[in-house]
Each structure stands twice: as structure tokens, then as C-alpha cells.
Specification:
Length: about 600
């Protein structure tokens, strides 16, 4: 086992000693082997199964069979969640087949960052994660359920579901993915359409057609953003079935995997062991494995926030230094858009998660000695499912990459270091996703241009004011200021300037999303401007050194620390934002998970 991984894991365990012990004590006190509903009064039970059919009603009246609580993020506005529409009926049928029942415990909100990108609603996006956590807790608080099936895929939804579920960590819990849509137009073609629109070469109708040809059917978007990073995390953490993350919706294999998932969680309940509970699966080693998976695959920068929040919900305390130290020993093994031309369907076909887990395990770069929904040990996650005579069979996964332009072994990586790094300097601490950034763009020393909003940068570009080397600084975009919206609209514009030969970079206390691209971006800066961070004191013309190779980020103007901090009103009106004012006032920093629950 790699010594750095062992050292990072040990220091996380030591740092978390008290909080983890308290969490486990609470979960063990709530764990028992009988039916949970046995503690309810007759009036409670009558309300709980009044809407059930006669078979399920009779079963629930007794204490002999498990009851599965389905927490669903279904809505038919999200393509990724559209397949969940008919899952509850199917799950109920599978549960009956394996001598259990299932009920929809509750629904959680599921907003789409693709719809709100660049819109006012994006200011609620990050906070929706904690709202989902609260909603999941309310759903499970009826105390009717012996196990949990979570239906959720996209950006804040999976982190929210697992945070909420961890408060019920005494229960066996499984995640059931829906799978990605089939491949549409190529990612390179999609990127060119967006850039052509930004330069005024095509009209809005042509842009909309290009977007529609890309996001064209039910299923997860096929680029490797936060939604698909979520699926990678749930698989490498052992919370969903091996090889199940990227199987397309509506296929016989997808349906067979869904049945297998129901069968698996029922088996965990019937085993009656704390070993199979969510609290016992999500340990310090599991969290380290999650970080390693993120680094090895060049996953979403959003998870430098979400994994921290997930860990804290399990009593585990991690920080960006843990990410940074692991990144030095974890190689970059994939090229999936925006890090390459391929999409997740190509990744899955080239060996997928099974090969990633295999090569990391064989090279001592992943903890094998962890519990999963399939029992002890991660070796089972080197397998992949095959449909033989209508039944799931587990076979050995790929032992070598089937396409080395997409996925590689540890011995032959795309880069010796992980795809995410930490940058530090007098401006603060920040995250940068380097997996898609060419080496020649990792160092920039240029004057700052300060913008209040991303729309101001786009307007300056259209006015021809940005044809030069510069570092865009966009402060007051952090969680306490406005909920930390993604600034993904900047990507096409900055990419155009970079292709024109100019050296450009971005510095912000906001987010850039899982689709962070080829332009170097130091994001999630702490302390944020509203907390007095230096980013709120930088002025246009200040010289900034941006060195992602060394991991440093500094304003080179003497006396900048003594300047009076700019201020900006954080009272937002409209689109429901006023309801979240108290959350903005109490939310933790990005490095602490940007949560109002801790």
C-alpha cells in the first residue's frame, strides 16, 4: 500500500477520532435486528400502510419481512431522472419477489444546473444539496424502514441523499443509478458550436439545435461532470453495484441490475449485521478511496466541496491538504470530456470503473480492506455484470485498457499526478482542475481585470476589450455572498481568447462546475470576499502570479492587504432567493463543505 495514502488516512482518522466515535455510538444505539416498525403504535402503522395493496398491508401489519424505503429525486425535467418515473413500481415488484415490501418514503428536490446555468436560480443550486439532505431525513423519519434505496444521480442530489442517509446510517442503504443517455454529437462538435455562438458566427437557433443534439434523450448527460463523478464515487465507495454506473437506461441489463440491487439490500437487512449498514461502509478508508477515484479520473471540482460535507456527516474530518497530498501520488488515468474527446459511454466500453479499480488496487493505490454492499473487500468491484439467460452473472472485468486514448493503467498514466490540485498564496487557498489544462497554460503572470459578474466579462469580450493577456478576477461569488453559483458561462469566452494566443486565467471564490475546461481556473477561494478574503481587495491592473505547477497564487502588489475591502450587498430578491438568506449567513466555508448543516 502506498505510504502517502496510509499516512493521509491515519491523520484523517486521528483528526476525526472524537467525532467519528460519537457518530458510530449514535448509529449503533439506533441499530437493531428486528423490524423497525415494531416500535410503532397501531395508529402509526395504520396511517403508514393505508394506501398499500392488500398483500403489502398484510406484510406490514406483521414484523416478519423487511420494508424498503425509497427516497426518490424523480422529476421529468431532468433527463437523468426521467428513467426513475417507473422505478417505484418495479422496485415494489422486485421486493415482493424476494419476500419484502417497498414504499416511497418521500421525494427530494432535484434541480438541474444545466437549466439554471447563468440564471438567477443557480444561486440556489449549492444550497439545494443541504435541502435534499433535510428532505431525505424527513422521508426516513417515519421509522418504517429497514433499508433504504436512493434514486438520484445529478450534481447536488447524490451528495444530498448520502448526507441525509448517513443520519440513518444504522440502516443498509444502496444507490440505484439510472444510467447515461446514449452518445449524441461529439463533444468537440458541441464545444465548437458554443464557441461559434459566443463569437457571433451562428444564431441562437443553431446553438439550440446543437445543444439538443447533444442532450437528446432520457439519461445522464454524457460528459464527465458532477453527475457522472457522483456515479464514480458511489461505485468506488461500494454503495452501488459494480459496473452499474454507466449502463444505459431502458436496456435489459439496466433492468436486471435494478432487480439485483433490490435483492442485495434485502440480503443485507436479513443478515442482521451492523457490518452491512451505511455507517459501517462509509469509513475513513472509504472517504480516502473516494478522493483517490476523483483524482484518478479527473472528476468534478464540485467534489472538493461535496466529499468534505459527506465525510463530516459520518463524523470524518478532511480538508484540501488531504486532496493535495493524495494528488501527488495518484496518477491521472482517464481522458473523458472535458478532459478529452470521449464521453462516459466510451469510458465504460473501454474498461470503465472495473479497470480503474483494478489498476489502482494492483498498484497499492486504493484501500481494499473496506466494507461494501457486497460484503468485505473491494475486489468484487473489479468485476462487471453480464446478462446470461436473463440473469445477472458476475465476470472478471477488463484486465487491460481497451482504448488507451481514453483509459490507462497506473503503469502508463496520462499524467503522474491527479487531475485536481490545491493552490495557496496571499490571495488564499483554492482548487484547480488541471486534467484538461495544457502544461503551457499552467503558469501565467498578468494584470488582473476585476469583474462584478460573469456577464460583465462576456460584455467586455463582445466589446473587443479583452484581446490581451489578463487574469479575470470575479469576487463575491462565494457561499456566504450569493450561494456560490457556477460560472460556467465563462468557459467558451475564455477558451476563445486562449485559442487566439492570449494568456488568460480565472480567479474566483465561486464555482466553475464539473465541466471545468482548458482554461486554468483557481476556484472556491477561501477566505471568500465576504469573509474579508484578499480576492475582495484586488483591483484591475494588479499583477498576479498564477502558478499551478508549484501550486501558488499571489497578488504581487505590495500593500494590497491594507486596502479597504470592497463590499457588496448579499440580500437577494426574487426566484425564492430571499428564503435562503439565513443559510447564506450561517453556511461554512468551501473548504469546510459549504454547508449550513454543520
Amino acid at each position: 500500500m502506498n505510504q502517502v495514502i496510509l499516512e493521509v488516512t491515519a491523520r484523517i482518522a486521528e483528526r476525526s477520532k472524537e467525532t467519528r466515535a460519537n457518530y458510530l455510538a449514535q448509529m449503533k444505539s439506533q441499530f437493531h435486528t428486528g423490524a423497525v416498525r415494531s416500535g410503532l403504535h397501531c395508529g402509526n402503522l395504520a396511517h403508514a400502510f393505508a394506501g398499500c395493496g392488500s398483500h403489502d398491508k398484510a406484510v406490514l401489519a406483521e414484523d416478519k419481512q423487511p420494508n424498503l424505503g425509497i427516497v426518490t429525486a424523480y422529476n421529468d425535467m431532468l433527463s437523468a431522472h426521467k428513467p426513475y418515473e417507473n422505478y417505484p413500481n418495479a422496485i415494489r415488484g422486485y421486493a415482493n419477489k424476494y419476500n419484502a415490501v417497498a414504499q416511497v418514503a418521500g421525494g427530494v428536490p432535484a434541480m438541474c444546473d444545466g437549466v439554471t446555468q447563468g440564471q438567477t436560480g443557480m444561486e440556489l443550486s449549492l444550497f439545494s444539496r443541504d435541502v435534499i439532505s433535510l428532505s431525505a431525513a424527513i422521508a426516513l423519519s417515519h421509522n418504517m424502514f429497514d433499508g433504504v434505496i436512493n434514486l438520484g444521480i445529478c450534481d447536488k442530489i447524490v451528495p444530498g441523499l448520502i448526507i441525509g442517509s448517513l443520519r440513518f446510517g444504522h440502516l443498509p442503504t444502496i444507490f440505484m443509478p439510472g444510467g447515461p443517455m446514449e452518445t449524441g454529437i461529439s463533444n468537440d462538435e458541441k464545444a465548437k458550436i458554443r464557441q461559434d455562438y459566443a463569437e457571433g458566427k451562428i444564431d441562437r437557433a443553431a446553438l439550440l439545435k446543437g445543444e439538443s443534439d447533444s442532450y437528446h434523450s432520457p439519461g445522464t448527460c454524457t460528459f464527465y461532470g458532477t453527475a457522472n463523478s457522483n456515479q464514480m464515487l458511489m461505485e468506488i465507495m461500494g454503495l452501488q453495484l459494480p459496473g452499474s454506473s454507466f449502463v444505459n437506461p431502458g436496456t435489459p441489463l439496466r433492468e436486471a441490475l435494478n432487480e439485483e440491487a433490490v435483492k442485495t439490500v434485502i440480503g443485507l437487512i436479513n443478515a442482521g449485521s451492523f457490518d452491512g449498514t451505511l455507517a459501517n461502509i462509509v469509513t475513513e478508508k472509504t472517504i480516502v478511496n473516494a478522493i483517490i477515484g476523483l483524482l484518478a479520473t479527473g472528476g468534478s471540482t464540485n467534489h472538493t466541496i461535496h466529499i468534505i460535507a459527506i465525510a463530516r456527516a459520518a463524523g470524518i474530518i478532511i480538508n484540501w491538504d488531504d486532496f493535495s497530498d493524495l494528488s501527488k501520488v495518484i496518477p491521472s488515468l482517464t481522458k473523458v470530456y472535458p478532459n478529452g474527446a470521449a464521453d462516459v459511454n466510451h469510458f465504460h466500453a473501454s474498461g470503465g470503473m472495473g479497470f480503474i479499480i483494478r489498476t489502482l488496487l494492483e498498484n497499492g493505490l486504493l484501500h481494499q480492506d473496506v466494507y461494501t454492499i457486497l460484503g468485505f473487500g473491494l475486489d468484487k468491484y473489479k468485476q462487471e455484470p453480464k446478462l446470461i439467460d436473463g440473469q445477472i452473472s458476475w465476470v472478471e472485468g477488463a484486465k487491460a485498457s481497451l482504448n488507451e486514448s481514453i483509459i490507462r493503467s497506473v503503469e502508463n498514466p496520462f499524467n503522474k499526478e491527479g487531475g485536481i490540485r490545491i493552490m495557496k498564496g496571499n490571495i488564499g487557498r483554492s482548487v484547480i482542475k488541471t486534467s484538461a489544462v495544457a502544461d503551457e497554460h499552467l503558469f501565467i503572470e498578468a494584470p488582473a481585470i476585476v469583474f462584478d459578474e460573469q456577464e460583465d466579462l462576456i460584455a467586455a469580450f463582445k466589446n473587443g476589450e479583452l484581446d490581451k493577456d489578463f487574469i479575470a478576477v470575479i469576487p463575491f461569488q462565494g457561499p456566504k455572498q450569493n450561494g456560490m453559483p457556477e460560472l460556467h458561462q465563462l468557459t467558451p469566452t475564455l477558451t476563445i481568447l486562449q485559442k487566439r494566443g492570449f494568456k488568460v486565467a480565472l480567479i474566483t471564490d465561486g464555482r466553475m462546475s464539473g465541466a471545468s475546461g482548458k482554461v486554468p481556473a483557481a476556484i472556491h477561494i477561501v477566505p471568500e470576499a465576504r469573509d474579508g478574503g484578499l480576492i475582495g481587495k484586488i483591483q484591475t491592473g494588479d499583477l498576479i502570479r498564477f502558478d499551478a505547477e508549484k501550486g501558488t497564487l499571489d497578488c504581487l502588489i505590495s500593500g494590497v492587504e491594507d486596502r479597504i475591502l470592497r463590499t457588496k450587498d448579499n440580500r437577494a430578491l426574487g426566484m425564492g432567493r430571499e428564503l435562503f438568506m439565513n443559510m447564506r449567513n450561517t453556511v461554512s466555508s468551501s473548504e469546510e463543505g459549504a454547508s449550513f448543516l454543520n
